[in-house]
Amino acid sequence: MTKRWNEKLTHALKSNHVATQDTSFLLYDVNFLEDIFKNLKNEWPEKTLHALAIKSCPLINILKIQKEFELGAEAASLEEIWIALEAGIKEEDIIFDSPAKTTEEIEFCLNNNIYFNMDSFEEFERVKIIAGERDYKCGMRLNPEIGKGTISHTSVGNKGSKFGVPIIGNEEKIKTLFEENPNLVGVHVHVGSQGMSLDHLIKAISQVYHFSKELNDLSVFDLGGGLPVSYYKDQTAPSLSEYRQTLERDIPELFDSKLKLVSEFGRSVFANSAVAVSQIEYIKNKNEIVVHLGADMFLRWVYRKEDWHHDVSAFSKDKDFEKRPKEEYQINGPLCFGGDILASELSLPKLTEEDYVIFHDCGAYTLSMWSRHCNRSMPKVLGVKNNEIFVLKSRQSKENILSLWK
Q1: Contact present, 331 and 357 (Cβ < 8 Å)
Q2: Which of these, 26, 66, 61, 29, lies nearest to 273 by C-alpha position?
Q3: How confident is the model over 158-172, as pLDDT tens digits?
Q4: Picking from 5-14, 23-32, 227-236, 348-357, which range would have the lowest pLDDT averaged per residue?
Q5: Do residues 324 and 278 touch, judged by C-beta distance below 8 A?
Q6: Which domains does the chain have, with CATH numbers?
Q7: pLDDT in tens, 256-269
Q8: 8 CB contacts (<8 Å, ≥6 apart)?
Q9: Which in 7, 70, 300, 341 has the greatest CB count within 10 A?
Q10: Half-sphere exposure of 56 (CA within 13 A, CB side)
């Protein structure tokens, strides 16, 4: 894992894109991402829309790249719709999934031909009133209630989940809605993100698909996202190709039907595509390293270490770095509370304040979850493609931070 990034980091640090104030930055492997985008287009049925989850990676310049591969975007807020439109994603390639859609947001979708999945019967009634006689297309999120995965906080397909309409107990009501409302043309299923096994995901999709065959005039099946990734160098996770092959084997009708398929992958596309890099600012008490990223970017990792992880390595411009003797270190973040500790008892070559700490698998749900605690600037984001380094997002400026609080 480290070897993959060494050459890329060398190019980045030698480029004129890493300035003195860039005490930390993210680096995306764009070749890696483009291979994934290409495979999504080539391996799935032609009628599939891959609407990648903006919440996992909202970088507009990344969305512009995925647009080149005719991929769409899944938005969980009106603000994320704005991001997709700014990137040039076509309105008909945006899926809107917020469970708290306002009248303004529904009106925006209706006026701009944006497909959305309704989260409840109550939302359906609101949409019906707002839409009036207008023609539009939408779906309904159904909950198969198959239980939680290994991370309860990111599981949403359990009984009592705040998301979606439970199928059990509502079968006839759901069927009636689809019979009486020609604008309701799709179903949506999403039972969790990370901590969900492949079997868990397939079971949920299978249950919703077999129920959906009883629905009138269905034309869209949205199978959501949720495919897990590995954050550990010595573990593997099911690939997107393996997921598709398993779906095709276990639910072949899903691929043979005339239904338009929609996916909402996020983590499984972006997570392994980037690293975060921080200068070592201080080495205190011989083994406490102070860096420029902490709970501001790694919220889940800092607060719930039992559920979340990132492998950590080190990088040096010193060619003999790996020959140094190993020592144990604690990695401390920069924020003003005692729990801002990223890793302890970490064995690394003996470090100096001229070296760097590397956090792996940071392409999803890291920068997009940035915390404003201590008001530190969001770091610069770089891309690397064919060893060329370029800026995907500039470091947050003083003016931008000040404007947030005016």
Answers
A1: yes
A2: 29
A3: 566 667 788 889 999
A4: 227-236
A5: no
A6: 2-28+272-392 (2.40.37.10), 31-270 (3.20.20.10)
A7: 878 999 999 999 99
A8: 27, 29, 384, 387
A9: 300
A10: 29
